Amino acid sequence: MTMKKIWNSLISTSDDSRSIFPRLIVGLVFLSEGIQKFLFPELVGAGRFEKIGFSNPEFLAAFVATFEIICGILVLIGLLTRLASIPLLIIMATALITTKIPILLNKGFWSMAHEYRTDFAMTLLLFYLLIYGAGRWSVDSKIYKHFKT
User: Fold this and answer.
1) What is the span of the domain harbouring residue 92?
2) Where are the alpha helices (DSSP H) in 12-80?
3) The model's pTM
4) Are 19 and 138 in contact (CB under 8 A)?
């Protein structure tokens, strides 16, 4: 596969305006969560990572927060949206495995379903963006149209 084909597959997008809503939701939530990991490290940053049982929680919290901020901004503006969705999906999968599966095992399905509701919605929105791209009102769309002609 040539570099041009790889590039085009990363920035190609559906030519509709519907993707703006998933982009706003995903981008703003991850941007906010990333910033909060720095602002409130004991609650949602290093303290939370330590409570979950991760080794080196300070580094890991900063690493995850940085990805959430950068990828959140990329999704918001619609630049490399498909690529930015991948690390965010990895973050969501890690959250499921480390925080929601233990709830399922200890408290049952309904407790886990309640705790997982936002993560579930975010994960589905990320899959939407991965499949359909950033949409008409995005930097990806502008770049794709420029390279396509």
Assistant:
1) 19-148
2) 20-39, 41-44, 46-52, 57-77
3) 0.92
4) yes
Each residue's pLDDT tens digit, 7-16: 777 788 888 8
CB atoms within 10 A of CB 42: 10
Distances (CA, A) of 59 to 55, 102, 111: 9, 23, 30
The torsion of the CA quartet 61, 66, 68, 72, rounded to 10 degrees, works out to 160
Q: How many domains does the chain have?
A: 1
Summarised one tens digit per residue, pLDDT across range 69-103 is: 999 999 999 999 999 999 999 999 999 999 999 99
CB 128 within 8 A of CB 22: yes
Residue 5 in any domain: the answer is: no
pLDDT at position 10? 78
Do the Cβ atoms of 82 and 135 come closer than 8 Å?
no
Q: Does 4 map to a domain?
A: no
